Amino acid sequence: MTSFSKLILRVALVIWILPLGLTGCKASSNESSRAANQPAVVSADTSNPSQTADDAPPPEKTGGFDGKRAFAHVAKQVGFGPRPSGSPAIAQVQEYLLSELKSYGCTVETDAFTSDTPIGRLAMKNIVVKIPGEKPGVILLGTHYDTARSARDPRTGEVHPMPTFVGADDAGSSTALMLEVVRLLCAQHGKYAVWIAFFDGEEAMHDWSDTDSRYGSRQMAARLSTNGDLKKIRAFLLADIVGGRKARFLRESSSTPALVDLVWNTAAKLGYSGIFLNDATSAQDDHDSFLKRGVPSVDVIGDFSNNGYWHTPQDSLDKISPKTLATVGHVFLESVKELQSK
Ligand SMILES: [Zn+2]
């Protein structure tokens, strides 16, 4: 077959499958239940042989956010291999983050600390970008950048090590998203300061509990409480698991309702109601460390319990969509603008 006839065939195929995809999407947007959404999403994906559904839109359509650049940041992190706290690979991520962030011209601070964990005392490092504002008050954005070293098998209940887990979505995607957000916000000085935190040690070192998880965000919240900066934080927007090709975002129930509304209304205004759904979910995450200390916080987290690869070795680069990264990045940029106007 010539490449021309291949092209004709592909065009014909796309024209033929397009109505099926649209019907599926329409049906899913009329339904509020997650179960009703599943088949439509699956049929739209399998009917797209060219994978163009995952291509990033031009940056000017997503507030300047470049989904291709963000995807490259995910690929770079995955290339370092598994990146649990205290590993040689996470040191490579730290170097990469610092060199990228500094290249954007931002002020970058690091907080190196140690944590006592079930597997011993580990060195950890939070990295925080600080963009000054004109008035007192801080808008805080955050992500974790470490990857899980173990997981609990839902069938056997046993905790097992994951030596091959590369965490493309968890936490490659949100780390990539924040890098791209920093690149765009570095040069902009708004009414309030914007701080972007990259947390170490979100994942459990052995098995998730209040003491074995969220080491980096607990460290930062405690430190800001001591030095008096915590009360300056007007809002904390956390991103986690934000790059999946089939990602859907549900309203996280422990998050501050007004902030959930702000982010979801922003997403709706931008035309993203198809992936920012109104169903509720609950997640324990780095926002808890700030919520506990009275900081209004929202966790924008992909529906990980349904993605089929969460905390498994299948969380690999092929699960990541530049388009999803750009969509969520756009929502974060616009939400910051919204918060700057208040
Ligand atoms: Zn995780």
Q: Report strand order across the widest sheet.
A: 1-2-6-3-7-10
Strand count: 10
CATH architecture designation of the largest domain: 3-Layer(aba) Sandwich
Helix share bin: 40-55%
Structural class: alpha/beta
What form results from the Cα inertia axes?
globular
What's the Cα radius of gyration?
20 Å
Bound ligand species: zinc ion
The stretches of 5 or more residues where confidence is low (pLDDT under 50) are 1-49
Q: Overall pLDDT, averaged?
A: 88
What is the CATH T-level topology of the largest domain? Aminopeptidase
* Overall number of structural domains: 2
Taking the sheet with the most strands, its summary is: 6 strands, mixed
Question: What is the helix tally?
Answer: 9
Describe this structure in words.
This protein has 342 residues and is of the alpha/beta class. It folds into 2 domains: 1-50, no CATH class; 61-340, 3-Layer(aba) Sandwich (Aminopeptidase). The chain has helices at 3-30, 34-46, 67-79, 88-103, 168-185, 215-227, 257-269, 287-291, 322-340; strands at 107-117, 120-131, 138-144, 150-152, 159-161, 193-199, 233-240, 249-252, 276-281, 297-301. The strands form 3 sheets. It has a 6-stranded mixed sheet with strand order 1-2-6-3-7-10, sandwiched between helices. β4 (150-152) and β5 form a beta hairpin. α1 (3-30) packs antiparallel against α2 (34-46), α3 packs across α5 and α3 crosses α9 (322-340). Zinc ion is lined by residues 148, 170, 203, 311. Residues 148, 170, 203, 311 line the site of zinc ion.
